[in-house]
Amino acid sequence: xxxxxxxxxxxxxxxxxxxxxxxxxxxxxxxxxxxxxxxxxxxxxxxxxxxxxxxxxxxxxxxxxxxxxxxxxxxxxxxxxxxxxxxxxxxxxxxxxxxxxxxxxxxxxxxxxxxxxxxxxxxxxxxxxxxxxxxxxxxxxxxxxxxxxxxxxxxxxxxxxxxxxxxxxxxxxxxxxxxxxxxxxxxxxxxxxxxxxxxxxxxxxxxxxxxxxxxxxxxxxxxxxxxxxxxxxxxxxxxxxxxxxxxxxxxxxxxxxxxxxxxxxxxxxxxxxxx
Length: 275
What we know:
mainly beta
């Protein structure tokens, strides 16, 4: 009789693979990854930082670790502090796998203001005593123009008043100027007597800033020290820096003007403002 034996298949050493979706995470951002086994049964998953155990998981059917199958597990851990971490998954037979990752401070990128064209070739008519014959006020945000009064008795509505930053007035053709609603000349004060919001825009003529190539930084720097609520004696080509009541900065360029002071006399401007 002949006896023979079967050669047993070699045992496959179980392996544990731990994966993390990213090498770095921001604070309060969920840590996502997976643990995959080639064989065996998962015993523990330990999260530590610099040798200090943060948490040990032994149950894998609930969050933050949930089982999608016997061999594969999903890892999610929220709101970790800034620091370096290691996730270690160990089988009941002792084999383990690790993965290191880092949590960094969550930052919000600073908003860098820009200087953008609000409107071009805006016609602002000269203000006259009755307050409703011409669109003598202007909103710098969009270049819209309005008459201070709707009719002989009704003033511009409050919401629109709050938008207005410029008033154009040429006193008998001798004092061409752009004024803040808060600082209009006495000659036209009745046009604004019923306004509840009169923005204190500030102005300063600039001889160093070119309108076409002006940058936000140039305008913001120039606007830091301006305090006047009007600018007068302007001519075609002049550039004026302004700052609104809400803190926006901008500039306008005089495209053209007429020398009269009637309702159809006007100044035409291009406007840029910070966004």
